[in-house]
Amino acid sequence: EILLTQSPAIIAASPGEKVTITCSASSSVSYMNWYQQKPGSSPKIWIYGISNLASGVPARFSGSGSGTSFSFTINSMEAEDVATYYCQQRSSYPLTFGAGTKLELK
Amino acid sequence: QVQLQQSGAELVRPGASVTLSCKASGYTFTDYEMHWVKQTPVHGLEWIGAIDPETGGTAYNQKFKGKATLTADKSSSTAYMELRSLTSEDSAVYYCTRFSAYWGQGTLVTVSA
After folding, report:
1. CA A9 to CA A27: how far, in whole Å?
2. Mean pLDDT (whole number) for B50-79
3. Which of residues 70-99 of B touch A (CB under 8 A)?
4. Which of A11, A29, A66, B36 lies most in the core, judged by the most C-beta atoms within 10 Å?
5. CB B64 within 8 A of CB B50
6. Is the confidence at residue B99, as pLDDT, over 90?
7. Quick check: B100 pLDDT over 90?
8. Which candidate from A42, A94, A98 shows the least CB-CB separation from B106?
9. CA distance A54 to A36
């Protein structure tokens, strides 16, 4: 099973601030997704295939990485970005998720 | 548009079984695998398994073998997950998802006497 370690677990950012979340895999993966989840809602695909923005996702978001190291970046934090973000690999079964990063507004 | 409509919340007794449903619409049901995911505050998001509705073939997370059984009814475009021998550890929100873009609204299962 591929373990995904996300950090930080919680982060607070001011409006306009740059935010970076990392996801480290225990083995090499070739396909990494990122999800956004707000309380009471289902996860929403935010970035797929490492760096592709899902439909409707603002351009201030980006994803990058390869092998065992991946990152998720918000160039300029906005209030609507408050949520929990999860990485997820689908390179091998069982599919696995990171523990999540809770993003708060400072 | 693609929609996955899940069945309502369940309150079940320890030791009992429960079957959750996920009705798909807006696409050809047999063209895509249906996956199930468990979410709890303690363990986060956990992949349970997947079913190919066309063939009935399944893949399970080893952790959930013996706990979950996935089936699909092509005639009604509905996927099912049976959970058996329920304990408090099975209390969770369960999602069906056509990875990665489409998710059901989730079904809350509460196991309590």
Report:
1. 21
2. 97
3. 95, 99
4. B36
5. no
6. no
7. no
8. A42
9. 11
